[in-house]
Design a protein that fits this description.
It comes from Winogradskyella jejuensis. It holds the Pfam family FGase. By secondary structure, the protein is of the alpha/beta class. It contains seven helices and 13 strands.
């Protein structure tokens, strides 16, 4: 993996180079092993939190981890195109608009002891902007090359705080073209339902049950690229103990291995159906 500037990353994409890079400020990674008509994203995988913010933050390291999506990059790591955040959403949230990306409160609790200095806020907003410059270049290249593209937008959620039964997998589709892509969305739901997890973990898959796909990553791509479908794909945190901060690596591995099989098949079927 190379450390590259934003302009160099974009230049590499425009030149259709294969590369594995971390942004020069270590805010996100991008791997392109091959140019294919699908990409995977894990915008909330990051846990880094820059040191100048530590003393001013009212949330603990555990509070932050609890609301992040740990291991979501590892679940998709072997696919040809993977973009993932390295920084915590508590520094800036890649799945919110530029104006809302830097939190003042988080999950009902004030985030900062003192309001952030404008320079600190701008540093975070610049990282957010850089990420989306690269996303725009990447999707633009894939649409130009293939005419159609699908993005698997991986997230996780805390299932134990719900007071009802919730699905292992949730697809959020309220901001995509369901008329055009409805059959493909249902195929993905069924594929996720086929995943087998260890320890008898219950396996269910629903659409718009817990979340509806209102994230900025999905909206940014959907609004700017008319031939790209983004599938906001949430796994309940059955792969960890969300209260004791323990990851279950065998569950993560099971998800990764099965996504390695079903995801390219789904993407190939999507391409076959929608490429002219």
């Amino acid at each position: 993996m190379k450390r590259l500037s934003i302009s160099k990353i974009i230049e590499n994409i425009n030149d259709e180079k294969c590369f594995h890079a971390v942004a020069d400020d270590y805010s996100f990674t991008l791997k392109i092993e091959e140019y294919v008509p699908y990409a995977c994203g894990a915008v909330h995988d990051g846990h880094q939190f820059r040191k100048e913010l530590w003393d001013n933050c009212l949330h603990s390291e555990y509070d932050r981890w609890y609301e992040e999506d740990p291991e979501t990059k590892n679940m998709i790591t072997r696919h040809p195109i993977v973009i993932a955040g390295c920084d915590s959403r508590f520094e800036y949230d890649l799945n919110r608009t530029p104006e809302e990306a830097v939190f003042e409160t988080a999950w009902g609790k004030q985030l900062w002891k003192l309001p952030l200095a404008e320079a600190q806020k701008q540093k975070s907003q610049q990282k957010h902007a850089n990420f989306y410059k690269v996303v725009a270049a990447l999707i633009s290249k894939l649409e130009e090359k293939f005419g159609i593209c699908i993005v698997y937008d991986m997230h996780s959620y805390n299932w134990q705080r719900w007071d009802r039964e919730v699905p292992t997998w949730n697809l959020g589709t309220s901001n995509v073209d369901n008329e055009r892509f409805g059959a493909c969305i249902e195929d993905w739901r069924q594929a996720l339902a086929s995943i087998k997890l260890p320890h008898g973990i219950k396996q269910t898959s629903k659409i718009n049950d817990t979340f509806h796909g209102n994230g900025y990553f999905l909206k940014f791509i959907t609004q700017n690229f008319k031939n790209t479908l983004v599938l906001a794909t949430e796994i309940a945190k059955v792969y960890c103990d969300e209260y004791n901060q323990v990851i279950y690596p065998e569950v993560v591995a099971a998800v990764e291995q099965q996504l390695r099989e079903i995801l390219p098949k789904h993407a190939a079927e999507f391409y076959k159906t929608f490429s002219n």
